[in-house]
Each structure stands twice: as C-alpha cells, then as structure tokens.
Amino acid sequence: DTGAQAALVVVPFYMNPSHKEIYEHFDKLNALKFPIILYNIPQCSGVHMKWWTTEGLAQLENVIGVKDSSGDMPYLMALFEKIKGKVSILCGHDEIGMPALAAGADGLILASANLIPEIWQDIYNSVQKGDLERARRLQAAIQKLVRIVVRTNANQAVKEGLNMMGIRVGDSRRPIMPGGACAREDVEELRSELEKLDKIKPQKIKFELNGKSIESDYPVIDKTPPVIKNFVMKVGEGFAGPPIFEVAHIDLLIGIKDGPVGIAFHSAKSRVICDRPKTLLVPTVTIRTKRQVENVYEHATSGINLAIEESETFNLTHSLTLFDSFLKMKPPINADERGC
Predict the structure, then answer these.
(1) pLDDT at 324 over 60
(2) pLDDT digit string (tens) for 100-137?
(3) What pLDDT is stored for residue 161 in this prediction?
(4) pLDDT tens-place string over residues 32-47
C-alpha cells in the first residue's frame, strides 16, 4: 500500500533458530506473494545461514535475492556455485566489495556508499568492464575508511561522516550513542580518511590572542568554531579505548601565562616535559609503582611529545607557542597496573 517493491528480511534473531526453522520462517513469508530479499548478517542477528539453507530458500517463488553482510567469502562462493542466475546475489560487507563483484556478485548494498557513492560506482563499473586492476586500486584506497565504518557501528559512523561533509543527519537513535561503539578516536580516523579522499577539506581555523591572529589548517569536527579566542583557560577532554577499561583518559588545559594555567606552571616546573610550547604532565592519581612511573613518565611523555611534533603537519605548534603554556593532565592508572 505504501509503494514498496520488495522487502529486505533479516534472518530471525534472539531465539537462535535452527536452519529448518529459518526455512519455515521464510516459507511463511513467501505465502504473502511479496518479493523478498534474504538478509544474512550474523554479526547482528547472531545466526549465520548455511549455504544449503539459502540454496533451498532460493527455490521459493517470491525470493528474488540474497544480501550477505557476513564478510564470509567461502559462503559467497558457495552461493555463486549453487544459485547464481536464479536470484540476485548482493554483497553487503564493505571490506570485500570489489572481490565479491569480481567473483560474481550482482551488486552491492553498503553502509559506506552513503559517504563515497561515486567510488563504489567506479569500482562496480570497472569490474563490469574487466578493469580489475583499477577496481583493486580503488578498493585499497578506501579500505581503511570502510573498515572503520564496518567495525565501529555502521549507523553512527556513517552519520558522523555525513555530518562532517555538511549533510546534517544528526545521531543514531538510542541505544546507539556518540562516542560509544564508534569511539571518538574512530571519528578522528574517519575524518582523516575523508580528507584523503577529498570528501572534506581541512578547515581554516583562526586563533586570536593578545592582538595577534594566526590562521591554521587544523583537524576539526563539524562543531569547531571558525575563530578560537579568549585563552584565559581552555578545557578539553579526550578518551581512548572502550568504556570501563579505558586505554587513556586525557584532560587538557591551555591558557595564557598570567592566568591560572601559567600559575600552575610556576608551582610545578619539574614536570615540564616540553619547552615550546611549554607542556606540563600531571597524573590524576598517585604514582605508586615502578611500572606506573615507566608508563607515565616515559611512555606517556614520549607520546605527548610525539603528538606535539606531529602537530607541525597542521602548522599547529606555531599557533600554540602564542600561549607558551600548555597543560596536559594524563590518565588515571588502574590499581591492578593495566597501565595507561
């Protein structure tokens, strides 16, 4: 009644049905006389259809195709052997899109196609023309991006990418949340890959301090303001790793010399780990063991200094020297010494 031409129907989930029960489920749907595309996505449903179950279902009158998002190439190869030409075989796993097409898939239904549709069209057309080398190069160029999308909750990852591209789609519905399955560091990696593919441009940010103004290419999220000023004290926070067992939890303060951040430097000069810009490392818990001393004052310190060096890629270090004070508060250390 609403104009739909077919239904993409996932394998029944939660109850972990047997393969006979899966068949019975789709057999009942077949009686509705409405075109059905079987949807195999075991990473979400918890059930991976066997090829022989799919082969049997392909004989049903109203089954017109199968979308496989498992990423299981042997399963796809069995489908090409058994049902190629009887129903459409569609690959739904972004990381194997090109090899699936080259092996015989009729098409692709992919989350990342919301971000890079023209590249997937190019891959498809290249395979159809027999230019497998071009298709291979294109897949390699997008492999990191599609890996991020596939493995960090495709819904939120795609929405994060579209928001960066200026297409305002908001966030996923609960229980999916920003910073959850698609963690903040994943979003930054996604941003970097979209920049490489020229889907977004590094944004020009202007820093204003003490009458000076510096414009810099700067890695930004879509919420970053075009002008950053009022540097009495700026507060930031970053997380790395899954919830509960964080790899790192970093608090960051930046401020002018005669403000609260500058005062903190005068009272803790021994912990300055970089001179330009001046950088102060402050653990948020008491350091008790040799392992913790090594993690914070060797490994964490090296990582922070490396980040400062790498910031030169974005001409950011020059901007920070305007402040000449840069306070990082480094992560809590678990009592069982899992480390930073």
Answers:
(1) no
(2) 999 999 999 999 999 999 999 999 999 999 999 999 99
(3) 92
(4) 899 999 999 998 888 8
Residue 340 pLDDT > 60? no
The CATH number corresponding to 7-196 among 3.20.20.70, 3.40.50.150, 1.20.1730.10, 3.90.700.10 equals: 3.20.20.70
pLDDT, tens digit (0-9, with 9 covering 90-100), for 152-179 = 878 899 999 999 898 998 888 888 888 7
Contact 66/38 with Cβ under 8 angstroms? yes
As beta bridge partners, residue 216 has: 205
Choose the weakest-confidence range: 64-78, 161-175, 314-328.
314-328
Q: How many CB atoms within 10 Å of residue 275?
A: 8
Type of residue at 82 = K
Cβ atoms within 10 Å, residue 326:
22
Q: Which sequence positions are flagged as catalytic?
A: 39, 67
End-to-end alpha-carbon separation of the chain, Å? Answer: 57
Question: Before 277, cis peptide (omega within 30)?
Answer: yes
- Pick one of 3.40.190.10, 3.40.50.2300, 3.30.230.60, 3.60.20.10 as the CATH number of 203-330: 3.30.230.60
pTM, 2 dp: 0.69
